[in-house]
Design a protein that fits this description.
The chain is mainly alpha-helical. The protein is 76% helix and 0% strand. It starts with 11 loop residues before the first helix and ends with a helix. The mean pLDDT is 86.
Amino acid sequence: MSTKTGEGFSSSFGAIMAAAGSAVGLGNVWRFPYICGKYGGGAFLLVYVIFVLFIGMVLMMSEFVIGRRTGEDPMKAYTALKPHHPGWKYVGLAGLLTCFLILAIYLVISGWTLNYFWESLSGTLAGIADTGFEAHFNQFASSAGRPVLFIAIFLFLTALVIVGGVDKGIERVSKLLMPILVVLLMALCVRSMTLEGASAGLSYLFKPDFSKLTGEGVLAALGQALFSLSVGMGVMIVYGSYLPKDDNLLKTSLWITLCDFAIAIFAGIAIFPAVFACGQDPTGGPGLVYQVLPVVFNSMGTVGRLFSIIFFLLLSLAALTSAISLLEALTQWLSGDRIGRTASAIVMSLIVIILAAAASFSFGDGILSGVKIGGMQLFDLLDKLTGTILPPVCALLTIVFFGWFMNKEDIIDELSNHGTVKIGYFKVFYHFLVRIVAPLALIVVLVTGIIGN
């Protein structure tokens, strides 16, 4: 049924690296550690693992099937599968809208990260007193020019990869960056765990504290699982349309999920033992990376500057691999039969940087900080929408479509690669996880989270 004859990944390994690159991003290295600590450490981790394996991976496989079966962008994919029920295309549209909003907030944080990498490289961070990092971050993030400059630089690098195409751009860059990212993270883990007092950080990360696991925390775990795996936003439908026809979708999904989970855990191991060893506050929230960790690196002496450079390079690379997938989903949708890939990437970049700049200006004491939407600054609103609300809603709509409205024979044909791959797991996967567990879990968590807020 696939209708697309354009580009695709050249190999299963390339596909896994590209999709894993999409999954492994700021959500793992920046967001996961502080959310895990905030909501009970090991307690949050337990719920997160359950959501990743039984909802996140199930959704990823579902989106891969939809994408590879149709070979289309999210809106066209739903239309192709249900041509007589055009209303389903709005599920694809909702996913693309979520993707757009996530990319905007992503660019703001990526701009911060790129700036901190530059300041680590130039030695600026090493010259700041331990008590001055909070003021330094707030002054930078709330300023008008510098954050937007780094947003623009980061977006230019992202668009450059997109213009290069799927196999020669996205796949080639992902195969290069992902191994580098893993090596850098392992180096940080080794250093962090050898610091005196590191065991307290590991206890904070892994010891369960169920008193902190509220309804809001459970919703955050679900949002983190969906956010970090890039599901519920149309990205994996797009990447699914690029997958080779002989690719085993279960194995590919499992590898990506394991990579995503492992990077999140290693990020926590790299950060919290060092934070505790240096006597810093582990509840630093979103500012943990930019206000607390620089103090940690400075306390390490000369070698600290090296590890500061490594960390912010790692975070920049993680951000880049995810931003590539977000911009690619939007570029594929806009291009279609309308305009070419290059023009589409440029147009989408120009549109999204406007929203990203506005979000940046609204942060802290920025020039738009006084503008409130629903009582919230634009940055905070986007963070809430993309972190805990829109991905679960889009995920619920996707899984309901896949389990209750998509042709079952099409699903079986795609998962079995036209009968060449055994899918003994299908009954459990489809009848239990897809049709019952995932939708009910998404509904319960969404309702609980909404009531809790």
